[in-house]
Specification:
Layout lengths: L1 H31 L3 H36 L2
């Protein structure tokens, strides 16, 4: 019976050490982890930047074609 108890105590000590390591790694991951809200905000901002660029570039192309058509031939 004593041998079993001492073996369980040794296992408990090892488990405690491993749990401490997991908690440490988890706290590091939590600080750098992005939430769904963070991802949503960044994707939304990126989408609007892309839409603005595409509309601006399209308008510039239309203006260039109009200028060329108006001032040639």
């Amino acid at each position: 019976m004593e041998a079993r108890v001492s073996k369980l105590e040794a296992i408990a000590e090892a488990t405690r050490d491993r749990l401490t390591g997991v908690e440490t790694r988890l706290s590091i991951i939590e600080r750098t982890m992005a939430t769904k809200e963070d991802l949503h905000k960044e994707i939304n901002a990126q989408t609007w930047k892309l839409v603005t660029f595409v509309c601006g570039f399209g308008s510039a192309l239309v203006a260039a074609v109009y200028f060329i058509a108006k001032h040639t031939g």
